[in-house]
């Protein structure tokens, strides 16, 4: 696997981190009411399938904020939903980890892959906070991670950037921009696709890829 060093770093620095009352580690823990019995293994396998999809080092690194309750929380893949992973037409393979009758879908993930799918695998996506931030007692909610939570994963972010050595870094949203600035990484800000930002997100991403001469497939 080309990204084996990334895999090793995640196994060491992310998987063992315990969940808290308002911050859930989907790669370590499962919930009896929400997750299948093998959910943790499924999410780890989905993430490994994602890493294994790269046969060349991706030139673009995109950093988002954190896993959402309908996306990475259950899929294990940043800005990707279970529904996408089980779709044969999707460029990544995966399985459902939730107990939901049908695989969860996420609005932001749908926009993200509609825009970026034609450029895959020229980009790699990660989250500034790779754990799911939610309100206490409400596991299927989302909250903005605190700056201290972003800072707690700064070493992991810096390590991934050192290993991937991207030519261009895009910060999806202000929290991602803050996280990259904290580790001294030069990045281009792009509007997050949620909450009415889809058009500006698409414009920002397409402009960045065009500047690099990275064409869409097909």
Give the biggest beta sheet. 4 strands, parallel
Please count the helical segments.
Answer: 9
Strand content: 5-15%
Strand segment tally = 6
Commentary on this structure:
With 218 residues, the protein is α/β, with parallel strands linked by helices. It has a single domain (4-212), classed as Uracil-DNA glycosylase-like domain (Uracil-DNA Glycosylase, subunit E), CATH 3.40.470.10. 38% of the residues lie in helices and 10% in strands. Strand 5 (168-172), helix 8 (174-182) and strand 6 form a beta-alpha-beta unit. The longest helix is centred in the last third of the chain and has 15 residues, at 198-212.
In short:
The protein is of the alpha/beta class and 218 residues long. It has a single domain (4-212), classed as Uracil-DNA Glycosylase, subunit E.
Give the topology, please.
Layout (H helix, E strand, L loop, with lengths): L3 H10 L9 E2 L14 H14 L7 E5 L7 H4 L6 H4 L21 H10 L6 E5 L4 E2 L13 H6 L1 H11 L3 E5 L1 H9 L5 E3 L7 H15 L6
Parallel strand pairs: 2-3, 2-5, 5-6
Antiparallel strand pairs: 1-4
Helix pairs in contact: 1-7, 5-9
């Amino acid at each position: 696997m080309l990204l084996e060093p990334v895999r090793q770093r995640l196994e060491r620095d992310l998987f063992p981190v315990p969940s808290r009352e308002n911050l859930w580690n989907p790669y370590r823990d499962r919930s009896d009411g929400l997750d299948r019995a093998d959910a943790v293994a499924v999410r780890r396998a989905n993430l490994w399938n994602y890493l294994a999809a790269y046969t060349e080092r991706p030139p673009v690194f995109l950093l988002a904020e954190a896993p959402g309750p309908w996306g990475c929380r259950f899929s294990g893949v940043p800005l990707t939903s279970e529904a996408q992973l089980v779709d044969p037409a999707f460029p990544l393979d995966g399985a459902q980890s939730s107990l939901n009758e049908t695989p969860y879908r996420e609005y932001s993930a749908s926009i993200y892959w509609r825009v970026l799918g034609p450029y895959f695998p020229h980009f790699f996506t990660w989250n500034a906070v790779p754990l799911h931030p939610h309100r206490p007692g409400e596991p299927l909610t989302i909250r903005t991670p605190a700056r201290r939570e972003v800072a707690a994963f700064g070493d992991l972010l810096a390590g991934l950037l050192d290993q991937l050595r991207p030519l261009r870094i895009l910060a999806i949203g202000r929290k991602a921009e803050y996280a990259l600035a904290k580790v001294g990484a030069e990045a281009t800000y792009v509007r997050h696709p949620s909450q009415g930002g889809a058009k500006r997100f698409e414009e920002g991403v397409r402009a960045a890829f065009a500047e690099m001469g990275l064409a869409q497939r097909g």
